[in-house]
Design a protein that fits this description.
With about 220 residues, the chain is α/β, with parallel strands linked by helices. It has one domain: 3-Layer(aba) Sandwich (Rossmann fold). It is about 30% helix and about 25% strand. The strands form two sheets. It has a seven-stranded mixed sheet with strand order 5-4-3-6-7-8-9. A two-stranded antiparallel ribbon has the order 1-2. Strand 7 (about 165-175) and strand 8 (about 185-190) form a beta hairpin. The longest helix has 16 residues, at about 5-20. The two termini are about 30 Å apart. The structure holds S-adenosyl-L-homocysteine. S-adenosyl-L-homocysteine (SAH) binds near residues 94 and 153.
């Protein structure tokens, strides 16, 4: 678990790249400057590139999201200290760490057992406070609802009803929606009442698909 001066230097450069690409939220940039992303790149082949603004394979056919995407989604979420946040798609745990570092209480769900096991252990070792669950994100996690914020980090074919229901009124959900294996549109939703949402579109992104129980595991 080494975090060297070289890593710290590479992170500083990454923060500048994100700033140039339009990320403005200083708390988000500080979190990215602090978190050792190389430890979340489970496939050692990609270690040397871990501070490039790119997504990488992390095993089980999944990827760690591109830092710009993590920063963009986190910015849209308008995270406040002590927000209760549900994340769908723990993956490497990197995005989870960013939310935890911002002072949120994070609940995160991953449907790939191997990834869940790895990322929950890593987050614990690095002392990021998050509750990690192995399960299906389409169902959310009713036991801890309602959430101030919900963040989906895989491409959803539609917005799951359970997630809409588990969001607080006044809460924000950020979710990329679109066809499997295609391009998704990043949406941010504010819940206005039990049945009404205000939705804003934020351009095209590419995520690994949000799979349900009947899809074969990748
Ligand atoms: N936040 C992650 C992104 C990982 S990619 C990171 O920073 O590394 C998206 C993840 O969503 C993958 O690990 C994938 O296995 C997971 N996923 C896909 N469908 C899911 C579902 N229905 N429920 C929970 N997780 C899901």
């Amino acid at each position: 678990m080494i975090d060297s001066f070289q890593h710290i230097g590479m992170r500083k450069r990454l923060v500048e790249v994100l700033r140039e690409k339009g990320i403005k939220n200083e708390a988000v940039l500080t979190a990215i400057g602090d978190i050792p992303r190389h430890l979340f790149c489970f496939d050692t082949v990609f270690l040397q590139f871990s501070y490039d603004d790119k997504a990488f394979p992390i095993g089980s056919g999944q990827t760690i999201s591109q830092p710009y995407t993590v920063a963009f989604q986190t910015e849209l979420l308008q995270v406040k200290k002590r927000d209760k946040i549900l994340e769908i798609g723990t993956g490497s745990g990197y995005q989870t760490a960013v939310l935890a570092q911002l002072g949120a209480k994070v609940y995160t769900i991953e449907r790939q057992k191997a990834l869940h096991d790895k990322s929950s252990l890593l987050l614990e070792k690095l002392n990021y406070k998050a509750r990690c669950f192995y399960g299906d994100g389409y169902a959310g996690r009713q036991a801890f609802a309602p959430y101030d914020k919900i963040l989906v980090t895989c491409g959803a074919p539609y917005i799951p009803e359970a997630l809409k229901n588990q969001l607080k009124i006044g809460g924000v959900m950020v979710v990329p929606v679109g066809e499997f294996n295609g391009v998704q549109t990043m949406l941010s939703l504010v819940k206005l009442s039990e049945t009404e949402f205000e939705t804003v579109e934020h351009g095209a992104f590419q995520f690994v698909p949000m799979l349900n129980k009947t899809d074969t595991a990748l």
